[in-house]
Specification:
Layout: H1 6-14, H2 33-42, E1 43-53, E2 59-70, E3 77-80, E4 85-91, E5 94-96, E6 99-100, E7 104-107, E8 115-126, E9 133-138, E10 145-150, E11 170-178, E12 183-186, E13 192-196, E14 199-204, E15 217-220, E16 223-227, E17 234-238, H3 248-266, E18 275-280, E19 287-288, E20 293-297, H4 298-301, H5 309-327, E21 333-334, H6 340-358, H7 364-380, H8 404-421, H9 423-437, E22 441-442, H10 444-455, H11 460-467, E23 474-482, E24 485-494, E25 506-516, E26 519-530, E27 534-536, E28 548-550, E29 560-561, H12 565-573, H13 581-596, H14 602-612, H15 619-639, H16 644-664, H17 669-682, H18 686-697, H19 709-721, H20 727-737, H21 741-752, H22 757-768, H23 776-786, H24 792-804, H25 806-812, H26 815-825, H27 832-844, H28 850-872
Parallel strand pairs: 1-11, 17-18, 18-20, 21-22, 23-29
Antiparallel strand pairs: 1-2, 2-8, 3-7, 4-5, 4-8, 6-7, 9-10, 11-14, 12-15, 13-14, 16-17, 19-20, 23-24, 24-27, 25-26, 25-28
Pfam families: ERAP1_C (PF11838), Peptidase_M1 (PF01433), Peptidase_M1_N (PF17900)
Domain Peptidase M1 membrane alanine aminopeptidase: 255-466
EC number: 3.4.11.2
């Protein structure tokens, strides 16, 4: 039950305020939208003067001075500050006794004035170790200490006192004292660095107006690279011990290309004057768009050998995504967290567009199709699907709907809208929006309104269909032929379900294909805007009767494609005859959709992989195919003893395929590393495991293959996963060899993955210890590796315990912890009993947080899917 702030009510009574007062703010760690709106109605023109004293020790101190205008001083006012020790508060020159509950400070009405107010708060606080607030990490290699800030969705108050809501933008003037060898990066570039006793004082000029979550400050003995070859000065930061793993020339190249692209596309110059990017440890996400000082996860972007093409494309794409936010998110910001989806969708769309048009990765949309977009289709077919635009009652719910629907379905709808309105109309609408709302907060209606004005079209109907209704539609070609020609053609659209009945307007291309001596060739292509259940396409009447019809050619639309029977047969038999990599990718996806729907037997799909994958020459598509292979093996592993004989047989075939392809690709490092990664994913037979051990020991040399430190850890993980003889000793030796932070993470993964009940029990206890000194990044690594798919029997030993304790863990741990725990630690074993057990847990667990409840429902749905896929298999 929620308690309410009695002190605030007492203060009001003592002050003699008799007018109707706002309800006191709930005493918990979160800010409701209602409370945020009430505060924003009173507060404006916010300026922060921030002074931090950083020593490298576990805690830091700070003094924050807030200046702001207050329209109504008749009621108390709250300032957000999490788990700090307050030494003093001064309000308008008067020292006051803090009313503080460890989540927010309440200022009494009698201490406030209508008009300009000044509040100064001095405090100390522990650094965080979970990736939020002001995170601290001690490098295990050299003992150096690094800090960085991370505030999204609402964690700025874990570092300093603040009105922690996006629609109270402010300016920030910063002073920081640090050890002598540290460097500091913030939103602005420092104007002064002074030597002081035992360290340095860094002074930064006042920033432009920003929402709190877009401000940042990072400090530590970072290695810094500089590049001034572009329009804006660029810097790149990384820990000293990992500097050799950084390729600054690639970072600067993609950054320079992106800034030039976005300056031109948006028609507004980059606003934050300099462009810092920092590789930081223990990061929760891929990257974060702090204005002028963007942070990136080391674990995703540091590599111990030369980057592959896929790794470079991933880097370019994320740089572009975060860069798009500098305009859409930082310059113009959502009013409340329900707008976070638009922020992320737009950056995903623009990031892909910029990667395709400004870098060497011209096939970026193909990668988007096979990656993010497929995740969105999967997410949109789950029982937990939701509309793109959803309410967010409080900051506790800010990340409830941050998923593939938010990022990739949202980006797909924007891509579709661009096709519907026209590329230049769409660009003009975006430009108008950014100009009108710069340095302000805006809503979805503001954005859609700007696009509608540019298009001279009312987009309210489109908005209702696409943004306020959940589910993915299915489209299918319905045609007949007479005399070798199409006599009638209708594009049919079906709703996701009776519960999700929406039919939508969309513009797609319909491609007709003929089989011939040169393969599967496009014979006709028409663009069609369809809506409703059926749309006639008279333009195709009289065309040669096709061998295959693809009704979303070139991927303009967001819809599941249901191939007609003839087209499906052609796709299954003729993948190698399709020249267009994107179309080939789409046909592979149609086959995989058939597997997930339990219509195409998994064993038939794997046979298609064995026949076609070794000859695949498109690097991006090969990555997509082997990704589906990885999911296929997870299904087989989870299915248990009844498919063991088939799994062993096909497993050896896949091992041989992947290793032969690794050897054959010695002249192409990208293909070779992709194929060797596939071999690592499928190796489980004694012969394959021995081969891996021989490669690790140098007894077997694969021409062209560099057995880097990362590869060594991958091999050790695989050997430990199957308890290969001597694998524990190999793990111990590698720990001595590699004492880096990434080495520690890899060692945890290889330890917990061992099929050893004692190890599982010990690490399950470590995961459950919410007071652990272990950084959350390492706890998360343990979660993700504890129960691999083939260790169902070991998982069963603690399954009932984990489910019985789920509600207690959910109540005690925060959303950051539970996002990882819910995905990795809820048990499922691809049996009817497992599905029933999950159903019982859903019925019993009515008090779970939204995120954990959804995890439980999704795992039950996917467990049932695994059973259906198992039943559909045709193995003998």
């Amino acid at each position: 039950m929620k308690k309410y702030l009695i002190a605030a009510a007492v203060t009001l009574a003592c002050a003699g305020v008799h007018a109707a007062a706002e309800a006191p703010r709930a005493e918990n760690a979160y800010l409701s939208q209602q409370d945020a709106a009430a505060r924003a109605a009173r507060v404006s023109n916010v300026d922060y003067t921030l002074a931090f004293a950083l020593t490298g020790k576990e805690s830091f101190s700070g003094t924050t001075t807030l200046n702001f205008d207050l329209s109504d001083a008749s009621q108390p006012l709250t300032i957000d500050l999490d788990k700090a020790s307050i030494s003093s508060i001064t309000v308008n020159g008067k020292a006051v006794t803090p009313h503080y509950n460890q989540w927010f400070i309440t200022l009494a009405a009698q201490d406030l004035v209508a008009g300009r107010n000044t509040v100064t708060i001095a405090y100390t606080r522990l650094h965080s170790t979970n990736g939020e607030g002001l995170h601290r990490m001690v490098d295990p290699v050299d003992g150096r200490v690094y800090t960085y800030s991370h505030f999204e969705p609402a964690a700025a108050h874990q570092m300093f006192p603040v009105f922690d809501q996006p629609d109270l933008k402010g300016t920030y003037q910063v002073t920081v004292t640090t050890p002598v060898d540290w460097i500091v990066s913030s939103t602005t570039r420092e104007t002064g660095v002074q030597d002081i006793e035992g360290g340095k004082r860094w002074t930064f000029p006042r920033s432009k107006k920003l929402s709190p979550y877009n401000f940042s400050m990072h400090a530590g003995p970072y290695k810094v690279w500089e590049d001034n070859s572009g329009k804006y000065p660029m810097r790149l930061f990384a820990r000293q011990s990992v500097a050799a793993q950084v390729s600054p020339q690639d970072w600067f190249k993609y950054t320079r290309q992106g800034l030039a692209f976005f300056d031109e596309y948006f028609g507004i110059p980059y606003q934050f004057e300099k462009y810092d990017q920092l590789l930081v440890p223990d990061f929760l996400y891929g990257a974060m768009e702090n204005a002028g000082a963007i942070t990136f996860a080391e674990g995703r972007f540091l590599h111990k050998e030369e980057m592959t093409a896929a790794q470079k494309q991933s880097l370019a794409g994320v740089i572009m995504h975060e860069m798009a936010h500098q305009w859409f998110g930082d310059l113009v910001t959502m009013k409340w967290w329900n707008g976070l989806w638009l922020n992320e969708s737009f950056a995903s769309f623009m990031g892909t567009l910029a990667t395709a048009e400004a870098t060497e990765f011209t096939n970026a949309w193909q990668g988007f199709y096979s990656g993010g977009k497929q995740s969105a289709y999967v997410q949109d077919q789950r029982v937990t699907t939701h509309a793109i635009e959803t309410p967010v009652p409080s900051t506790a719910n800010a990340f409830d709907n941050i998923d593939a629907i938010t990022y990739s379905k949202g980006a797909s709808t924007l891509k579709q809208l661009r096709h519907l309105l026209g590329e230049e109309v769409f660009r003009q609408g975006v430009h108008n929006y950014l100009v009108k709302y710069q340095y302000r907060n805006a809503t979805l209606d503001d954005f859609i309104g700007s696009l509608g004005q540019a298009a001279q079209r009312d987009l309210s109907g489109w908005t209702r269909e696409w943004l306020y209704q959940a589910g993915v539609n299915t489209i299918a070609a319905d045609f007949s032929c007479a005399g070798g020609k199409i006599s009638a053609f209708t594009l049919r659209q079906s709703a996701a379900s009776k519960a999700l009945p929406a039919l939508r307007e969309q513009r797609v291309q319909i491609g007709l294909f003929q089989l011939g001596a040169q393969g599967l060739a496009l014979s006709k292509n028409v663009a069609v805007t369809y809506q409703g259940a059926a749309t006639a396409v008279p333009e195709l009447k009289g065309a040669v009767c096709p061998d295959l019809v693809y009704p979303n050619y070139q991927d303009w639309g967001f819809a599941q494609v249901q191939l007609d029977k003839k087209s499906f047969t052609t796709a299954q038999a003729s993948l190698s005859k399709v020249d267009d990599p994107l179309l080939r990718s789409m046909l592979w996806q149609s086959l995989w959709d058939g597997v997930r729907a339990a219509k195409l037997p998994l064993n038939e799909f794997l046979q298609t992989v064995l026949v076609n994958a070794p000859t695949e020459q498109d690097y991006t598509l090969l990555g997509d195919v082997v990704g589906k292979l990885h999911l296929s093996m997870d299904y087989l592993n989870a299915m248990g003893p009844s498919v063991a004989a088939y799994k062993a047989k096909v497993g050896v075939q896949l091992e041989r395929m992947a290793f032969a392809a690794t050897q054959a690709a010695s002249a192409d490092k990208n293909f070779q590393r992709r194929w060797f990664g596939t071999y690592l994913d499928v190796a489980s037979s004694p012969a394959a495991l021995k081969q891996l051990a021989d490669i690790l020991a140098g007894k077997l040399v694969v021409p062209g293959l560099n057995v880097s430190q990362d590869v060594r850890w991958d091999i050790i993980n695989r050997l430990n996963r199957y308890a290969y003889a001597g694998s524990a000793e190999l793990l111990a030796a590698e720990q001595d060899r590699d004492k880096t932070d990434s080495g520690q993470q890899a060692a945890i993964a290889a330890t917990v993955v061992r099929p050893d009940a004692k190890v599982k029990t010990e690490w399950l206890a470590a995961i459950a210890d919410l007071q652990t000194k272990l950084p959350f990044s390492k706890v998360r690594t343990a979660m993700n590796n504890l129960y691999p798919s083939e260790q169902g029997a070991l998982s069963e030993q603690t399954a009932a315990q984990r489910l019985a304790g789920l509600a207690a863990v959910d109540k005690a741990a925060g959303p950051v912890y539970m996002r990882a725990y819910g995905a990795a630690m809820i048990p499922a074993t691809c049996t009817p009993a497992s599905v029933q057990r999950l159903e019982s847990a859903i019925v019993k667990s009515k008090e779970l947080s939204t995120g954990t409840s959804r995890s439980l429902q999704v795992i039950k749905q996917e467990d049932a899917r695994c059973i259906a896929i198992k039943k559909a298999m045709t193995i003998h």
